[in-house]
Amino acid sequence: MDTVIKRISEIEKAAVTVMDDAAARKKAFAAEMEEKTRQFDQTADAETEKKVQDLRQEMESRMKSELSKQKAQAEAQLVRMEKNYELHHETYVKKLFQELIRE
Question: Bigger pLDDT: 95 or 4?
Answer without folding.
Answer: 95
